[in-house]
């Protein structure tokens, strides 16, 4: 999700200024997925002669919902008069028609378009109600590359299609980085939208942590209060450094993930952690992990305080959930229900120190700093990476002294 630009408040602008502002929207053909941010929709409303309703739209909506948030109900609130409302509905229908034409006629990102004939699908790696990810082989210039292929099922709704187009846009913007799953290409014409991304041979971080727990940890009678380090602390911190590094890149690109969790971190060669799932991640995991908010379903155990209670998402919201590196395949907050957790969080309740967290390093103190209620009081991802780099160096020094 792209982070909001500084807000632009409505003011009494001269006709000349307004004409200059909206000229790009008057001269270009736009489809509905081009209007992603609040500013996009505000400028579109001005271009179509509905500037008087733009401020009201800005007050109602959050960045990332774009033109698709202009539902019939919302239009009724924004435009009480029947005539102007019908005019705006017609303009929105033109946006949708342009999108359908774009999907069937021209590549969404020509430089990333892949011929469908060069792609061979293999086994399913993961699936949800509306989409699935398969292993695939991409043959290009005589070279075959193993890739991951994300597609939608026939039962997918229009919103799911827009989400996948949005994910494609984000992947193009983010570009390549060692700690982010990179886009290989996409098939956007003559068939359903298909995303082709880098394949991570070691799967999800969540599964790796579960599968690499010592056998003793899986026994019910183990004393989980012991101070024994059950996973090598150096490896856990290395995962944290990789994640902070990848998220620093996303932050620099004005990208907010909104669902950073161990299930959305993949492991490449040499166990390099890579951030993934920028748009369809909510379709891949369990519905039971969600509570219904006023606008969407939220995974309460992995979401920041301000996102859970106020539907506000920033880079500092992503910082809030970096504690995943300390939870080797375990569910945060144990068996507590989402509703129970929502009652406790406002009083200052936070995740307790995991049993596996050692006493000789201050990782838990770093994690607690990520859970500050006010986003501005949390460290940034670059700061977290620097801190974790120091911790792992101290840990190596301490370990060498013991040997």
Helix count?
13
Radius of gyration: 23 Å
Number of domains: 3
State the CATH architecture of the largest domain: Orthogonal Bundle
Shape: globular
Helix content: 25-40%
* Number of E-state strands: 9
Order of helices and strands: HHHHHEEEHEEHHEEEEHHHHH
Stated plainly, the CATH topology of the largest domain is called: Transferase(Phosphotransferase), domain 1
How far is the N terminus from the C terminus? 47 Å
Mind summarizing the main beta sheet? 5 strands, antiparallel
CATH-assigned homologous superfamily of the largest domain: Transferase(Phosphotransferase) domain 1
Strand order of the largest sheet: 1-2-3-5-4
The CATH class label of the largest domain is: Mainly Alpha
As residue ranges, the low-confidence spans are 1-29, 216-230, 280-296
Secondary-structure-derived class: alpha+beta
Strand content bin? 5-15%
Structure, explained:
The structure is a single chain. With 403 residues, the protein is an alpha+beta fold. It has 13 helices and 9 strands. A 5-stranded antiparallel β-sheet has the order 1-2-3-5-4, covered by helices on one side. The chain has a two-stranded antiparallel sheet with strand order 6-7. Strands 8-9 form a two-stranded antiparallel ribbon. A hairpin with a 6-residue loop joins strand 4 and strand 5. Helix 1 packs across helix 2 and helix 2 runs antiparallel to helix 3. It is globular, with a radius of gyration of 23 Å. The N terminus is likely disordered.
